[in-house]
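Hi all, posting the design record for the shared folder.

TITLE: backbone redesign
STEP: 1 of 1
STRUCTURE INPUT:
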């Protein structure tokens, strides 16, 4: 017998899609077991009061996902031959710590504000292909195919380190390690530095990938609230005094998710606090090169005279996240330790990606690409800010970043961004609600809007739809509470 299927003919999601999604959930959760024979399309259409074509379309999607298989003359079966005979209760494994990414679902043509990543349409494909050709046909091609140093592809290391030294971002005693994106740099820091129970002070709200790395490793996480000017200095001072963290991770520019940037005075205070307490300070500056307006602030690493600040960066936001190339710059002894930890993870990062990015940068193509994405980013940010001002319901607040990919919205009370997400998705727009970024406190009305992947027209369209969804709910709640007698009268 099939588990319950409830379809909503008033929804904006087509019926075949609703049926597909619900059956997929039932199959993936095991409620419809593998090997089960499904009713024929005509039969199921009759049971659910649907058109037969609707059921056929849902079956076709399930078949495309490898979840169903039709056998001529026998019927349609859930893929697999009965329950697999596993002796391990995989489903009962401890869940990963912290809220994992939500299962977002948008129909085709949907507008997603959920991903903090560059726009595929802005990738310079011709330049990328030429770069790959040059690398593959170059003298170093054979060496690239061989195993190499865990520290990374030497020409890229040298290029990045020289650039960092020129910009005052690396001192004579610093070294560099190439990692598989910033994400691996965070993980290696956790492995090399933290012991179980050590405290890491991190921003709250924060990029979930950072929280997850330290939380799954057993670190004690303390969130320091982020305001319009980045991490709060008074709160940080209290946290450092009480919790004695071993590590402090700070995003100086266009923090994910808030878009906040630290002013100079806050940067100086952070350096002083970390120095006085002997806390290891990690500057997580993945968005710093995406400034669309205003003057840049000096990096913490540059302001610090002692070379103790560790800086991590990546090509993911300014070029191609799929190539997975990032780096850590820090004191030589630490870099040696991180390289040793990296060796146990993956020996070294992929040479071809590193060689391609090195050639892309060295040839001047990266600078040209960056100029184009800065221009597009400025237009997108401006479209985002004006659309938020125009369409979000009265009482909403939002940050005003001068760069990066994200801004943070606070909906008026009592709206709950997580509760409203399914409704927004039915209108074919999505975003990430605040709970995915929370460390110590969840902002119920908080949500992140990522704007870098959408052109200005889509941004306006998407925010106007969100504005309608939020405003309708606000009106509904207000109407209901207006009708409820005040406690003083009953
Ligand atoms: C703050 C932050 N850190 C790290 C990452 C992951 O970066 P990478 O692709 O370099 O691993 C992201 C990506 O969204 C991010 O926003």
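Okay, here is what came back for every position:
SEQUENCE:
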């Amino acid at each position: 017998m099939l588990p319950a299927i409830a379809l909503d003919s008033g929804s904006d999601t087509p019926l075949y899609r609703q049926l597909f999604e619900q059956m997929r959930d039932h199959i993936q959760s095991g409620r419809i077991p593998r090997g089960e024979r499904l009713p024929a399309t005509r039969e199921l259409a009759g049971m659910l009061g649907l058109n037969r074509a609707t059921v056929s379309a849902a079956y076709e999607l399930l078949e495309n996902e490898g979840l169903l298989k039709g056998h001529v003359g026998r019927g349609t079966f859930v893929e697999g031959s009965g329950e697999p005979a596993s002796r391990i209760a995989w489903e009962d494994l401890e869940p990963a710590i912290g809220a994992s990414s939500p299962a977002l679902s948008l129909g085709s043509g949907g507008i997603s504000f959920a991903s903090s990543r560059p726009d595929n349409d802005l990738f310079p494909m011709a330049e990328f292909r030429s770069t790959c050709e040059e690398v593959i046909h170059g003298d170093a091609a054979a060496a690239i195919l061989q195993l190499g140093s865990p520290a990374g592809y030497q020409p890229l290391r040298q290029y990045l380190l020289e650039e960092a030294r020129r910009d005052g971002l690396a001192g004579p005693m610093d070294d560099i390690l190439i990692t598989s994106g910033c994400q691996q740099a965070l993980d290696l820091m956790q492995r090399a530095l933290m012991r179980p129970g050590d405290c890491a002070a991190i921003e709250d709200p924060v990029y979930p990938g950072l929280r997850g790395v330290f939380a799954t490793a057993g670190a004690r996480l303390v969130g320091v609230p982020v305001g319009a000017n980045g991490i709060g200095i008074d709160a940080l001072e209290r946290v450092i005094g009480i919790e004695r963290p071993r590590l402090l991770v700070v995003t100086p520019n266009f923090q994910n998710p808030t878009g906040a940037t630290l002013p100079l005075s806050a940067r100086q205070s952070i350096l002083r606090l970390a120095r006085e307490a002997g806390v290891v300070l990690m500057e997580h500056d993945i968005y710093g090169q995406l400034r669309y307006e205003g003057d840049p602030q000096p990096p913490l690493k540059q302001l610090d005279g002692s070379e103790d600040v560790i800086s991590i960066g990546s090509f993911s936001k300014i070029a191609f996240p799929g190539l997975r190339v990032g780096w850590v710059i820090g004191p030589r002894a630490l870099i040696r330790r991180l390289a040793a930890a990296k060796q146990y993870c993956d020996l070294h990062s992929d040479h071809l990606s590193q060689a391609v990015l090195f050639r892309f940068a060295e040839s001047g193509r990266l600078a040209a690409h960056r100029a184009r994405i800065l221009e597009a980013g400025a237009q997108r940010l401006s479209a985002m800010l004006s659309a938020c001002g125009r369409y979000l319901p009265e009482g909403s607040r939002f940050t005003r970043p001068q760069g990066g990919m994200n801004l943070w919205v606070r909906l008026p009370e009592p709206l709950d961004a997580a509760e409203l997400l399914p409704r927004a998705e039915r209108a074919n727009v999505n975003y990430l609600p605040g709970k995915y970024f929370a460390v110590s406190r969840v902002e119920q009305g908080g949500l992140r809007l990522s704007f870098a992947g959408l052109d200005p027209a889509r941004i306006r369209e998407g925010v106007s739809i969100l504005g309608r969804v939020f405003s309708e709910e606000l009106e509904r709640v207000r109407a209901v509470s207006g009708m409820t007698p005040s406690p003083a009268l009953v």
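COMMENT: The pocket of pyridoxal-5'-phosphate is lined by residues 116, 181-183, 207, 209, 256, 286, 314, 316, 321, 326 (CB under 6 Å).
Let me know if anyone wants the other runs.
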